[in-house]
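Issue: ligand-bound run for cytidine-5'-triphosphate - logging full I/O for the record.

Environment: standard queue, default settings, no custom constraints.

Inputs:
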Amino acid sequence: MFPRGREIILGISASISAYKSADLLRRLQDEGFLVTVVPTKSSLNFVGAATWEALSKRKVRTDLWQDVSEAAHTDLARDVAAIVIAPTTADLLAKLAAGICDDLLTNVIMAADCPKVLVPSMHPQMWQNLATVSNVKTLRERGFIVIDPDYGRMTGADIGIGRYPESAKIISTLNSTLERSADLIGKKILVSAGGTIEPIDPVRFIGNRSSGKQGFALAYAAAMRGADVHLVVAGELPDVEKKKLEGITISAISTAAEMAAVMRAEAPFSDAIFMSAAVADAKPAKSMGKKIKKDELRNIELNQNEDILQTLNQLRRDNGNAGQQIVGFAAETFDDELDSGKSHQQDLINAGRKKLNQKGVDFIYVNDVSGGKVFGSDMTAGVLVCNDGEILEVSQTSKLHLSNLLLDKVSARFQPNQA
Ligand code: CTP
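Outputs:
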């Protein structure tokens, strides 16, 4: 679903203030949100499933093992614009900070990559408990939006910070979070991914190792932020990615020349280009229509492929499209046997600077792929070299997180009137 729509999840955990979420649910619906309620089992002691079903007009599940075929937590998590958990108990904060997922709600939260708004509501002493303070800090650092509770009277006679805030405050936080997360609406983003394949004969080829995961993550992240994305994939798009990337334009190509043709055609319409594909630097001078017999397979004459990034940079200049942002990627290897234990951070930075200048791009993300590191993984670590001299060291993080970081960098350079 692109861009993010109005589908949201309202999670309910076991605080006596859960009844206030009935009002929140109605107000969210008034705002045009389509709400699926996911209560924890113990929260049903305060407000039962019947109330949530009647108000949301949707089936309510609490259990991972209920209706397994139709409601996998990943399905619930995939298509929502945001998750609001109101109220959030101290116990749920602790579970989320520790990454524990032992029911449907915690699994959905873990599986979702949309914005998550937490509305803690608890006794002031629990809110100020050092464990809670530390959990809230951790969750904020990981990108959760945690709304501070209000000051006032508790269920008993006590007064302090811990009250469930007004629905209007929660909705305004949600709306501003969603506005921020849709910052690429109206932007065209072109992404290349995968490894090109240069045929030697009908059964053999020259290729580069690449799972395409960085490019798929970029396409997904950009689309989730509202961009109009065109993904140019070398090779096969795995089924799991196909499902995630439903709704975006995909061009499937095979060779570097085919990739160059699509990139050239699409570049003039693009606000930003991410060249994450591993392009084969050379192709056989002659591709044989018939399988070469092994006795004749001694030497293969190669011709260099076009450097697509350089072409894109040239095109940008020719078209006077100075505002367009171009991001390159570089995979470097180091001789770990000779150099074992040595940090290659400075080498990565140097390699990045050199390639950034050579290719004339705005940003280049360089990672160390010695010994097959990074390939096929959902994680990455490297250095982002920017043409304004900034160097950003990226320590072990998900490719999706890196994608959002790159999109932040690029979108910060878009002209305001381009929005
Ligand atoms: N690239 C490209 N066209 C090519 C080769 C690479 O557009 N023919 C792009 C890649 O998509 C990547 C960047 O250039 O964004 C860096 O690729 P890399 O292979 O690291 O650089 P090369 O220029 O090929 O340099 P070398 O292999 O000599 O390190």
